């Protein structure tokens, strides 16, 4: 998708992000696609239906990215966040995943579910959103009048030195394929997708569950669509084709003025859906007075999911205002939101951002975060059950 101006290319990318997210929000609401609920069903009732829907989404995303890799239209090596970076931040993925798993259990849902619940009229989730947004924003942006962030103050000095430099990208294709990393990514991606699909549809009950199948397919396909859109959109300049992020980096040489220049080039890199850091981006967007220079893919994704959920809530007449039952309910959601804010940024993603998007890149961080989130959530549920 080649455009003659940066403004037109950016507009298409942003509205495409919004449109796909809107569909994902509506379908997730309709099918009750919920990763925290999936773990709860499995741990507390032995029902694997929604967990299989989550795995189905992963399989679809893996297969879709393998197709993009095969066609040469993906630029995941340049992704934001850098899933395939050579630094394996294992401690951050582990701790962040555990914190996020505990947090989403206390707060009644992950980042995506929080947005879905807001669209459905849940004011509790609006509070969760605001807390996550503040923490996510200041984890990566300095406090006013300072150069310190929550990340630098609380985590960086002790957790970043634990990182392992792998000397090559951390995706399974690069680690196992050597000089044939590209081919290995395709083979491994398709192989894992087929194995997961076989495992998912092995259950006869799941094969009859149209809602779970629809939810898994649409969420997985949405992740793939975003990878394609953000990788394929390009701007023509000086006889060359530039991705949006590269164009901004070379703005002074390519553009005639600073009008329309984004504040940061990184959110214009190839990317797909994740919802914790984008909540912080949304806070920044609102605080800036809705400045176009800070309008990002992530912000549009947040708005899209909320509106999609709202539309389905109105169509299905399921929209209803919900508030805290008591102080304990408020406290659980408050603590859960705090843990999700810290955990989601530390792990570079949530149950969608790492549990589907990250895994679709075959990055080690995606797999470690996924298992850490599941473990943190499952352990919390077991403790809650015992306390009952």
Task: Outline the structure in words.
With 388 residues, this protein is mainly alpha-helical. Helix content is 67%, strand content 4%. It is built from 18 helices and five strands. The strands form two sheets. The chain has a three-stranded mixed sheet with strand order 1-4-5. β4 and β5 form a beta hairpin. α6 crosses α14. The protein is globular. The N and C termini lie far apart (56 Å). The mean pLDDT is 96.
List the helices and strands and how they pair.
Layout (H helix, E strand, L loop, with lengths): L1 E2 L2 H26 L3 H11 L3 H23 L15 E2 L1 H17 L4 H9 L3 H18 L9 H10 L4 E2 L6 H6 L3 H20 L3 H4 L2 H23 L1 E4 L2 E4 H6 L1 H4 L22 H11 L9 H19 L11 H20 L6 H8 L3 H24 L1
Report the mean per-residue pLDDT as an integer.
Answer: 96
Total count of helical runs of at least 4 residues:
18
Amount of beta strand:
under 5%
Task: Please report the total strand number as a whole number.
Answer: 5
Rg over CA atoms, rounded to whole Å, is 20 Å
Query: What is the overall silhouette?
Result: globular
Tell me the distance between the termini.
56 Å
Low-confidence blocks of residues = none
Note the run of SSEs as H and E.
EHHHEHHHHEHHHHEEHHHHHHH
Approximate helicity band: 55-70%
Sheet of most strands: 3 strands, mixed
- Class of secondary structure makeup: mainly alpha
> How do the strands line up in the largest sheet?
1-4-5
Concise overview:
With 388 residues, this protein is mostly helical. It has helices at 6-31, 35-45, 49-71, 90-106, 111-119, 123-140, 150-159, 172-177, 181-200, 204-207, 210-232, 244-249, 251-254, 277-287, 297-315, 327-346, 353-360, 364-387; strands at residues 2-3, 87-88, 164-165, 234-237, 240-243.
């Amino acid at each position: 998708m080649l455009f003659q101006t940066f403004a037109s290319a950016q507009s298409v990318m942003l509205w495409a992000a919004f449109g796909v997210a809107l569909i994902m929000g509506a379908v997730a609401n309709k099918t009750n696609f919920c990763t925290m609920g999936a773990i709860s069903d499995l741990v507390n009732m032995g029902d694997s239906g929604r967990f299989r829907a989550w795995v189905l989404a992963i399989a679809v995303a893996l297969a879709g990215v393998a197709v993009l890799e095969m066609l040469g239209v993906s630029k995941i090596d340049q992704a934001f966040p850098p899933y395939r970076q050579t630094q394996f931040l294992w401690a951050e993925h582990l701790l962040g995943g555990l914190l996020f798993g505990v947090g989403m259990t206390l707060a009644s849902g992950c980042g995506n579910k929080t947005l879905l619940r807001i669209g459905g009229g849940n004011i509790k989730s609006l509070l969760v959103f605001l807390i996550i947004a503040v923490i996510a924003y200041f984890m990566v942006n300095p406090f006013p009048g300072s150069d310190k962030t929550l990340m630098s103050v609380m985590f960086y000095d002790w957790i970043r030195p634990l990182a392992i430099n792998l000397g090559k990208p951390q995706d399974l294709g690069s680690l196992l394929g050597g000089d044939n990393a590209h081919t290995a990514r395709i083979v491994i991606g398709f192989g894992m997708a087929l194995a997961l699909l076989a495992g998912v549809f092995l259950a006869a009950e799941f094969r009859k569950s149209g809602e779970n199948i629809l939810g898994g397919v649409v969420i997985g396909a949405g992740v793939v669509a975003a990878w394609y859109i953000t990788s394929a959109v390009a701007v023509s300049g000086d006889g060359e084709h530039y991705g949006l992020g590269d164009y901004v980096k070379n703005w002074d040489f390519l553009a005639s003025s600073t009008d329309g220049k984004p504040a940061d080039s990184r959110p214009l890199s190839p990317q797909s859906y994740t919802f914790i850091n984008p909540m912080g981006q949304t806070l920044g967007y609102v605080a800036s007075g809705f400045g176009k220079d800070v309008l990002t893919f992530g912000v549009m994704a947040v708005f899209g999911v909320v509106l999609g959920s709202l539309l389905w809530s109105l169509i299905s007449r399921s929209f209803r205002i919900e508030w805290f039952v008591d102080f304990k309910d408020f406290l659980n959601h408050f603590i859960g939101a705090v843990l999700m804010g810290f955990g989601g940024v530390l792990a570079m993603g949530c149950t969608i951002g790492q549990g589907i998007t990250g895994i679709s890149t075959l990055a080690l961080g995606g797999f470690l975060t996924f298992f850490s989130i599941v473990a943190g959530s499952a352990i919390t549920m077991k403790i809650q059950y015992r306390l009952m």
